[in-house]
Structures are given as structure tokens and as C-alpha cells.
What we know:
Number of domains: 1
CATH class: Mainly Beta
Oligomer: single chain
Strand order of the largest sheet: 4-1-8-9-6
CATH architecture: Sandwich
Number of strands: 9
CATH topology: Immunoglobulin-like
Distance between the termini: 50 Å
Amino acid sequence: MDIRKIFIVVIGLSLFFTGCKSTVTNSVTFKSVAMENVIVNFMGETFTVAPNSSKTVRNIAKGTYEYSTTYIVPSGIKTSSVSGAVSGPVVMNADTRITVLYSSSIQGTGDQLSYIISATISSNDKVVTPTGP
């Protein structure tokens, strides 16, 4: 057997045993426990996430994507603010699952009520933090 045939067999076997995934399993889930609707702008699509529901976007190719959030303020409340990860990038690697969780609260009294929408983000990707120089 000449060296080229051996090389082809070795490459073929390595592809067979390591496998090539043909499906993309990356996903981002936007989940809301906020008091009012949250509107998300992600990958050229806008969708509403009602209180106590979620929307999952699946089969996202590797890369970095931006999302942003608009929200509904409950009636009778004059001011609002945001906290946390209500917008920003999501980085998709192989088999990445990300969840953006929205919550809300009302602070103040009387005419000084303020609606605060908060978001946290979590991922199953391993984060490596350098520990040395």
C-alpha cells in the first residue's frame, strides 16, 4: 500500500470516528417573568414575550449576534428604567444554549412609582478565566 492510500484511509477513519455534525444545536431562549410584555429584536426578527412565557430561537450558526429589548410599562406608572443584560451580544459556539431571563419590579409610592425591567443572561458555555500572567 502506498503512502497516499494510507493517508486517505487514516483521514477517512478519523472523520468517521470523530463525526461531522450536520445539524446546529445552538439556541437562545428569551424567558419573561416580568409584569408586562417584553419585545425582543434578535437576528432580524422581533417577537413579543408575554409574562410567564418564553420564545426560543433554534439552529443558530456560530458567531456573535446582537439583541435588544423594548418593554411595556404598566398603566399608571410614569417612569421606568432598565437593569442588567437587556441588550448586547450573544456568542454562539458549538452546542451553545443561552437564556435571557427578564424580570420586573415597581418601586416608589404614590405618583413616584417607577417600573424597573431587569435581565440576566446565562450560557452553558464554559468560561475560562486566566489565573496568571
